[in-house]
Amino acid sequence: MANITKKVSWSSRHDEPGATGEGTPLLNGSEQPRYSRQLSGGGIFQIGRLSTVDLDEEVASDQDHLRSRPKEIPHNEKLLSLKFESLDYDNSENQLFLEEERRMSYIGFRCLEISRWVVCGLIGFLTGLIACFIDIVVEQLAGMKYQVVKQNIEKFTEVGGLSISLILWAVLNSAFVMVGSIIVACFEPIAAGSGIPQIKCYLNGVKIPRVVRLKTLLVKVGGVICSVAGGLAVGKEGPMIHSGAVVAAGVSQGRSTSLKRDFKIFEYFRRDTEKRDFVSAGAAAGVSAAFGAPVGGVLFSLEEGASFWNQMLTWRIFFASMISTFTLNFFLSIYNDKPGDLSSPGLINFGRFESDSVEYNLYEIPLFIAMGAIGGLLGALFNVLNYWLTIFRIRYIHRPCLQVMEAMLVAAVTATVSFAMIYFSNDCQPLGPDHSEEYPLQLFCADGEYNSMATAFFNTPERSVRSLFHNQPGTYNPLTLGMFTLTYFFLACWTYGLAVSAGVFIPSLLIGAAWGRLFGILLASITSSGSIWADPGKYALIGAAAQLGGIVRMTLSLTVIMVEATGNVTYGLPIMLVLMTAKIVGDYFVEGLYDIHIKLQSVPFLHWEPPATSHWLTAREVMSSPVTCFNRIEKVGTIVDVLSYTSTNHNGFPVVMHHAASDEPAKLCGLILRSQLIVLLKHKVFVELARSRLTQRKLQLKDFRDAYPRFPPIQSIHVSQDERECMMDLTEFMNPTPYTVPQETSLPRVFKLFRALGLRHLVVVDDANRVVGLVTRKDLARYHLGKHGLEELQLAQT
Amino acid sequence: MANITKKVSWSSRHDEPGATGEGTPLLNGSEQPRYSRQLSGGGIFQIGRLSTVDLDEEVASDQDHLRSRPKEIPHNEKLLSLKFESLDYDNSENQLFLEEERRMSYIGFRCLEISRWVVCGLIGFLTGLIACFIDIVVEQLAGMKYQVVKQNIEKFTEVGGLSISLILWAVLNSAFVMVGSIIVACFEPIAAGSGIPQIKCYLNGVKIPRVVRLKTLLVKVGGVICSVAGGLAVGKEGPMIHSGAVVAAGVSQGRSTSLKRDFKIFEYFRRDTEKRDFVSAGAAAGVSAAFGAPVGGVLFSLEEGASFWNQMLTWRIFFASMISTFTLNFFLSIYNDKPGDLSSPGLINFGRFESDSVEYNLYEIPLFIAMGAIGGLLGALFNVLNYWLTIFRIRYIHRPCLQVMEAMLVAAVTATVSFAMIYFSNDCQPLGPDHSEEYPLQLFCADGEYNSMATAFFNTPERSVRSLFHNQPGTYNPLTLGMFTLTYFFLACWTYGLAVSAGVFIPSLLIGAAWGRLFGILLASITSSGSIWADPGKYALIGAAAQLGGIVRMTLSLTVIMVEATGNVTYGLPIMLVLMTAKIVGDYFVEGLYDIHIKLQSVPFLHWEPPATSHWLTAREVMSSPVTCFNRIEKVGTIVDVLSYTSTNHNGFPVVMHHAASDEPAKLCGLILRSQLIVLLKHKVFVELARSRLTQRKLQLKDFRDAYPRFPPIQSIHVSQDERECMMDLTEFMNPTPYTVPQETSLPRVFKLFRALGLRHLVVVDDANRVVGLVTRKDLARYHLGKHGLEELQLAQT
């Protein structure tokens, strides 16, 4: 357990020095580390001790002990990492901001509104283009690969020596995956996986370093192409969501820090609040392009991210979604030589479910619910296995070369298993007149027949899903489906979490479709009158929904995505019932896959609601204290010292005011952020200098926007000894009206305020408006409902 | 202008005395009337004057003048009525509440959660049943009526004397409408119209008296049956939303105050916050049953009401929606002798749009957008006409008998116009082989033909819509459609706002479908190759969407409702584009119909965002002051006097604490509501009594819940002269941690806090935590963006 590096974590990388700002302990360090609390409850929170605040005596003794070993604490779900910073979804309404807003005319606001629409349109368009690019390249590469292998197999089927084909296949797969894995593991580890957990965190308000950078996008797109072409049990849909989010974050800022280009547009949007709204739109556009589900995309964004619903914002998000799916559809129709045909709105196309043929009956509903329960169970099993695997990976497979090797191994094994399954399968089916199979493998089948197992394995997963949904009854025999489900389940489980860009949606759908179809076939064979159960495709769809719901545990958005992907609202009710059952059953055992991964990264994620039994706690127990405060007019030296003091790394500082005449205690009069102080120091906004150089340009909001979001660390700012003696007037720059709560406020009430307004710092005051503490995201995220009631997570630097 | 009564207003009725609590000026009276502000700005707000607070000198002179004439101020959109109270969507977390929460175990919370699901299931089920009942009764009654009239027409077509048929038709219609109008106008005026504006207000946090009572539901259901059977240009869909909301409010409380039955269940849900959540679910269930659109229902609830999105809540709302449409479908299938057939999920059924036949092409999109613009224009025209009409009605038609007579007149005119249109139309069409027309009228057509105009007029509007969508090309000739659009447009416009329960969805769809189909036919006749434009049904659908969007201006939810009602996601993009265009074009001229009616009722409605240019204003300018405060331990006499003082009618009182020793000014230590004080007074929770009678039962949360929501007025509580000298300790009952803002907070910031948390009172404090003012809904709703920049609405008692 000692050799934990931070390579596998989202939060930081060794090879990136502090110079860039993000990820440095200084700038993005935590609020005050709370070692005192860390051990006091012994992991499990003891309610009885909370009403007292007598924990201070433990601090001194424990502190040294703890400081020596934070590295030893492994990633696990009982920790909250202090590495993750919050985003500030509450505007700092300082004087500069208010002046700007007040200067702006009504026409100005209209123009802003129009540019928001323009940005959303651009986001949708670019996301659609990226989806289109991925789709075409994957199809070309996979097509080439399967052609080569197929020819090879056909050649060797007759002469013998199919092991050469196997090797060819495995090598081709591994080569693709190697490329994809290397760029991910070595250049941008954050691009691994589907990116959905990261986007969830971002929208929740957690700053995940480098998650919306251009480099991440490039690696993501390249990685997903390689991993899908490499035949892994992955989908290209999840990464689209991340890609859309990156596009949104880039476009909305009107510049690229990576490319060092500033287009001087959309400067107004350079703050966390505005950026978040656009990232929501980008994620929605990604879902929309992936599944052809614009409404589902909007709901995904809302379900996973937003907490405040706003009609115009939602409508803009929907606009981005629509443009995205439309762009994809338009370009794909040109690519497919059917311009103007609007029938492929997403990367995955479930094919057309005609309502006449596949209507369901009332008495089938209990069966659907049973399938939902199966999906929930299998999903929970999948998640548990993947959880163990992820812990194993965090502990032992953290070096890039090991990660690449593991990915290549998985690719080779996938090819081998597939080959073996196809080889030993003797499920031969006659080739249909219309040759609906893309790459029919004859192998040992008679002429005019093809190997049925190969349609499932020797194909991109998207096509396999479609075949399972729509192929005629009798295309697959039950044994084939059973074997396929079994092997693919474990392959997919092993694959998720590799250092490759890849989504889990399609593998889940595929597993579910396979056992769903099996379920349908068995049902038809049991019942005597085969006619009404005749269509196993319907059961494949329900199975797919059940399995996906059991793994990811999404609710409304997934229902709508599935309905939109089938293009038929008839299945709304059964899909909802199935997802509901799968979620209830699955939640009984373990959380959803994304939540597991978020927890394993120790992200301070705020859920929808505070733990139910947390009314015991008040702000007094929850808050961090004592708080470092500044005076309204503060000495530069003090500020520099506080900012440089590495062990605290506060990001928000209450500003207080002493009444000169009386000796009343200081009252809260504002809140200033580390990033604002940095900009002030950089521009040397000192009282003395302002007096001497009267013509000096006044600091404007633009200066803060230019520095956003990569504020330099304090070390890079040189402050001379003379300057240290100067004073800085914070009045103009602090937020003069931070939200506050009294000490007696209950945790749920604090939580509600914090979550609803997307705060980063919430000042706790006493009845005379004096600062007594500060509540941050980590203070709230620490409490969660465990098996033994309310538990408190430990905080760690890991 | 002098004879304004309040009969036509939502807020109060003359015939209901103060005894029931709601609607009395005392209990539901306003926060402090702000006469001083009322005239100071002269209607239009003058920014320049705001930074000073020197308005006080004007008060004395203006006050008497103003008091004398509040009755004279007509309902108009430049007023905010003080009659409307707020709902309290922020829990009062007093000691009683916290104790209860802390006593509750984790299991207890799980049970609560489960009962929430049960309630939602019940809401869905009952809403579905009501929809089913309405549908069947309307079908039977309308069927009987049309049969009788048809036979009569057939009889007199040959012998002459069709005027007798006309009279029969007109009398039948008027009779139905008379019944519907009498129950609405005389028994429950709040049940008039679609109820959507009222539910919007309720979800927004405005207490509309009697809006969720059982009596309202009964009148609504009876009224809608009569008005639809009476052949008015109305739909039965809008009222379903209101009905669902009433069902939800009733079921979730586990009792009916009207029936005086208390089932002693769901007592935990007896507060505004919980009730609102269920009402959201009820409204969603109503939409779902009306249009067969469960997802659209959820989105409707969110778009019109909620501001805080919560995954589990949304999922529950969706559950209620699904159950509702399923229940309706199930019972309708039994009624139609096709048990198990799940093809009629809503009251309105757009019929099946098969994707093959009606796909659209890229080059049609500009046409769709043009249709959207037409829809926006026509919608704006509709709204403007209806606005004038409503003003006229408010001024002159406010007595029930006049209202009933107007409704009967409209019914008779509708019948006459329809008859005339049919009579003078010579558009004969051959009867199809399958007799798809329900009541084909032959009139003067040849045998085997029927009058085409009659399919549009001589039918329930739902069927007419479906015919316009799906009848074969060539069924209608352009003149018929043009005439129909024209007449129906004015009829529908005249009808909306009558004292009958009726929705505007279906008439809008019908108008739009008619001109849309006309558009399609003209297009086909212009273009040479008729084949691609061959299907006018597609244009009818787009026209329907455009017209509806132009009138109601809903966005995402309407898109989804339309898509779900067509059962085909292919039309998602064009419908979105059309609705977007219609909204943009329409908003340029006038607001949506519901918003117009809300404004005309002077409801203090909080929109999504504060006016864009309101950063000028701070809490200091916005708040009401001075504020009546209570001491933590207050004399009973003082409390009774304050509560009885009719001219202020505060509902929330900050509780302050004087430090006994020093002469420091009083600090805020809590907030107590009028309703809580009333309960305390009723139970005589006095300090002296508690001392003397030690065994007295402690007041519990249950006592407050039992009194909810109809708290008695202060007059009904007898307090003896001795008791007036007692003291009351408010500590246990006040909310000890009300949200506060400093005086310098900008209006947008105040607004955001207020709206996001659904507050009713927001205390404004100075830097020493002393109360300086109180912000309520009316203080925020007053400001809106008019043509001349920021405007301030006047407050009036009307």
Question: Could you explain the architecture of this structure?
Answer:
The structure is a homodimer of 798-residue chains. Chain A has 798 residues and is mainly α. Helix content of chain A is 53%, strand content 8%. Chain A contains 29 helices and 18 strands. In chain A, the strands form eight sheets. A three-stranded mixed beta sheet of chain A has the order 8-10-11. Chain A has a three-stranded mixed beta sheet with strand order 13-14-15. Chain A has a two-stranded parallel ribbon with strand order 1-18. In chain A, helix 28 (747-757) links the parallel strand 13 (740-742) and strand 14 (761-765). In chain A, helix 4 packs parallel to helix 9, helix 9 (272-291) packs across helix 11 (311-335) and helix 16 (478-495) runs antiparallel to helix 17. Chain A is elongated, with a radius of gyration of 28 Å. Chain A starts with 34 loop residues before the first helix and ends with a strand. Residues 1-7 and 11-74 of chain A have low confidence and may be disordered. The interface between A and B is large, with 86 and 85 residues.
Terminal Cα separation of chain A, in Å?
13 Å
Q: How can the largest sheet of chain A be summarized?
A: 3 strands, mixed
What's the gyration radius of chain A in Å?
28 Å
- Strand order in the sheet with the most strands of chain A: 8-10-11
Q: Number of helix segments of chain A?
A: 29
Tell me the quaternary state.
Answer: homodimer
Q: Would you tell me the overall average pLDDT of chain A?
A: 81
Low-pLDDT residue spans of chain A: 1-7, 11-74
Q: What fraction of residues of chain A sit in β-strands?
A: 5-15%
Number of strands of chain A: 18
What class, by secondary structure content of chain A?
mainly alpha
> Biggest interface between protein chains, with counts per chain?
A-B, 86 and 85 residues
